[in-house]
Design brief:
RNA-binding; eight-stranded mixed sheet; MeTrfase_RsmB-F_NOP2_dom; methyltransferase; 14% strand; 2 domains; alpha/beta; 421 residues; binds S-adenosylmethionine; Rossmann fold; RNA binding; N-utilizing Substance Protein B Homolog, Chain A; 12 strands; coiled coil
Length: 421
């Protein structure tokens, strides 16, 4: 006699997609954004959004979820069963899914040999309920130990506030085109960005198709703001895609040359500029090896980095990066900084920026810039309305996810300004 077959519980495609996102990010160390693009095209947009929400919640609270599951597991289950348990626990404790649905879908998701285990463990987790989360040191559990140690060394006790800021999804921040008015419900931030609540769909906002704004974290908008582009200036935007900073420079009236190595990301930059009706000269090249026809008045170098300042928006980053990635990124940044210094006219200015919280990718570049003959021109707190805490005593920009905590935080960014004598 064959066992009776049950129809799959509703919502299984969403959980399968969430599991695929966890497999891609945690086992293959692929970026979550890339894994989302690789999900089957037939997946309903609502299922895709729900899978993203589930996977992002698991990635944000991975340490806490594993801590709660630990007492019920005598040995490590294989990854597909582990992911089913994490998804089930996240739904039970953090996402408000009714217990029977959370358990049934996680059981259906698990490899058959582990269905009984997943069922038994999640029933126990469901019985304990959200109380299971109480008393856990979530900030610490949900932060990989090497990142905690590095932020503690750099920022002292603020490491806890940084880690806590990573727990909630980030709001939607927009940079307005000149003269545009904010959509209903947007908060206008002191630095000029507009802020809408997390989960707002940018394409649904009036003015999107007309190019009245673009998506850009409030902190990511600061390096171009601090470069203070002027109409008619020749400015290079090195490492430019997807083009948030190119758009800021072009909207200010500068003659922008956007240099980017990655062809696919350049397509996104072109699409963004077309929607915004902005123009830039686009060059596909390795900025560390490229030579311009003539030197520039100003350069914005938004260098590739470990992106540990963007964990609120990209919770996969916390798990994808390794300590050895930091010196590798810093070395690539040093090469780009040296190339940028050669492209600058005498008297020209350069803003170097990274979206990393690691000082090796920020403050540590100051002596290198000096060795290249660049003169550090400190930022003044008055240049940054409403955010004086982001200017360090040395005159660098250093934003952190716990800044503007009551308003929804911001990405961690570093920037420094130099002048070529
Ligand atoms: C932090 S992102 C830039 C974000 C962009 N400035 C913006 O505001 O939208 C870094 C970019 O640098 C590009 N990149 C990395 N190494 C590069 C190189 N050697 N030359 C040119 N582009 C590079 C990456 O492909 C990526 O698009």
């Amino acid at each position: 006699m064959t066992a009776p077959t049950h129809p799959p519980p509703p919502g299984l495609p969403t959980r399968r997609a969430a599991r695929d996102l966890l497999t891609a990010t945690l086992e293959q160390r692929r970026p979550l954004e890339e894994a989302l693009e690789a999900l089957p095209a037939r997946l309903d947009p609502r299922d895709r959004a729900a899978a993203h929400r589930i996977a992002a919640t698991v990635l944000r609270r991975l340490g806490s979820l594993d801590e709660i599951l630990a007492p019920f597991l005598r040995k490590e289950p294989p990854p597909p069963a582990r992911h089913a348990l994490r998804i089930g626990a996240a739904e039970l404790l953090l996402l408000g899914t009714p217990p029977h649905a959370a358990v049934a879908t996680a059981v259906a998701l698990a490899p058959r040999a582990f269905a009984g285990l997943v069922n038994a463990v999640l029933r126990k987790v469901a019985a304990e309920g959200a109380a299971a989360l109480e008393g856990l040191d979530a900030a610490r559990l949900d932060t990989p130990p090497w990142l905690w140690a590095s932020w503690h060394a750099a920022y002292g006790p603020a490491v806890r506030a940084i880690a806590e800021a990573h727990r909630a999804p980030a709001p939607l921040d927009l940079t307005p085109a000149p003269g545009a008015s904010p959509p209903e419900g947007a908060e206008v931030l002191p630095t000029g960005s507009w802020r809408l609540s997390a989960g707002t769909r940018v394409t649904d906002l009036p003015g999107f198709a007309e190019g009245r704004f673009w998506v850009q974290d409030a902190a990511a908008a600061l390096p171009a703001l601090l470069l203070a582009p002027r109409p008619g200036e020749r400015i290079a935007d090195l490492c430019a895609a997807p083009g948030g900073k190119t758009a800021q420079l072009a909207a200010a009236g500068a003659e922008v040359t956007a240099v980017e190595r990655d062809a696919r990301r350049l397509d996104r930059l072109r699409e963004n500029l077309a929607r915004l009706r902005l123009r830039a000269t686009i060059v596909q090249a390795d900025a560390a090896a490229w030579t311009p026809d003539a030197p520039f008045d100003a350069i914005l170098l938004d260098a590739p980095c470990t992106a540990t300042g963007t964990i609120r928006r990209h919770p996969d980053v916390a798990h994808a990066k390794r300590p050895r990635d930091v010196p590798a990124a810093a070395e690539a940044q040093a090469r780009l900084l040296a190339a940028a210094a050669r492209m600058l006219r005498p008297g020209g200015r350069l803003v170097f920026a990274t979206c990393s919280l690691q000082p090796e990718e920020g403050e540590a570049h100051l002596p290198r810039a000096a060795a290249l003959g660049l003169v550090h021109k400190p930022f003044l707190p008055a240049e940054l309305p409403g955010l004086p805490e982001a200017i360090t005593p040395a005159g660098c920009l250093r934003t952190r996810p716990d800044f503007w905590a009551g308003r929804g935080g911001m990405d961690g960014f570093f920037a420094a300004r130099f002048r070529r004598p």
